[in-house]
Structures are given as structure tokens and as C-alpha cells.
Amino acid sequence: MSRQQKNDPRSKESEKQLQADYLRERIYSGITLLGVSAGLLANTAYISASYALTTIVSAALGIGLASIFAELVSYRVIHDRAIPRREFLHHLRTHRAFLVAAAPSLIFIPAAALSIMTLRTALVIDIVLGVFSLFVILIRSAVTPKNTLASITVSIGIQAIIAALVIGLKIVK
């Protein structure tokens, strides 16, 4: 990016939009994969590490591919033409967030398959890291220059309850 592009307000807005889109996908993927991991944890007595890894990989790929497919189809329906290459590349950059959300699973479940740890331990670590990651995002979303400590606390609490309810619904599915 040239110096002129860096100082262009439209370029800065475009970069902020890219970050917002990426973060939205990261949150959605993280919540969905937390639900999958929690479901796997509830059944560790009946599944193998390879089954758990296959489940996580297929869920993560499903999230990513479904998001990209939805972008392509919705663009064509609304604009009556194929998505321009630049916009498509933008969506590819944002939808790769599912890989980041799946990273702890892709590290710790293979460790369980190699008998470095139990599958239960791997899934607990995976869930703790996922919850921590979402908690950091919630804190960042609540901390703004205008918020007081009380409003930050209430905001984090409400968002955490909503996230827990969504994860709970995904587990029940």
C-alpha cells in the first residue's frame, strides 16, 4: 500500500470494514466451534480423537464454504452479475477466520491422537481457549472512551450471557 493510499480516508474505512468483517466471521465461527467442541466433550467416552478431529475439520470447512457460497449467491441475486474479483478476494480474506477459530482444535486434538494427552483434556483446553478468545473480544467491544466501569461491566455481562445462550443452543442441536 502506498503512502497516499494509507492517508486516504476511504482506504482506512475499507481496512476497518475488512477488520470488522473478519471479526464477525471469527466470532460466528468461534461460537459454532465451541458448541461442536462442547458436544464432543460430552461424548468423549464414545468417540476417538480421529472422530473428533474429523468433526471439527468438517464443521470448520462447512462454516467457511457456506459463508463464501452465501456471499457469491447473494451478490449475484442482488446485483444480477458475478461478484467482482476484488470483492471476492475481500470475502476470501474475511472468511478465513474459521481457520483461526479452529486452530486450538487442530493443535490439541491431534495431540490426543498421538497420546500426548487424553481427548477429554484436549477438548477442555480447546473450549477454555475458545471461551477466553471470545471473552477478550467481548471486553474489547465494551471498552470505549465513553463507557464507565459500570456500563462496561454490564455490557460484558449481557454479551457473555447471550454468547452462552447461543453456544447452549448449538450444543442442544
Structure notes:
The protein has 173 residues and is mostly helical. It has a domain at 12-131. It has seven helices and no strands. α3 runs antiparallel to α4, α3 (49-79) packs antiparallel against α5 and α5 runs antiparallel to α6.
The assigned structural class equals mainly alpha
Principal-axes geometry comes out as globular
The count of strands amounts to 0
DSSP helix count?
7
User: Helices and strands, in N-to-C order?
Assistant: HHHHHHH
Range of strand content: under 5%
Helix content range: over 70%
- Oligomeric nature of the chains: single chain
Poorly predicted spans: none
The CA-CA distance between the termini, in Å, is 45 Å
Mean pLDDT level:
86
Largest sheet: none
Q: Please compute the radius of gyration using only Cα atoms.
A: 19 Å
Transmembrane segments: 27-49, 55-78, 98-117, 123-143, 150-172
Keywords: Membrane, Transmembrane, Transmembrane helix
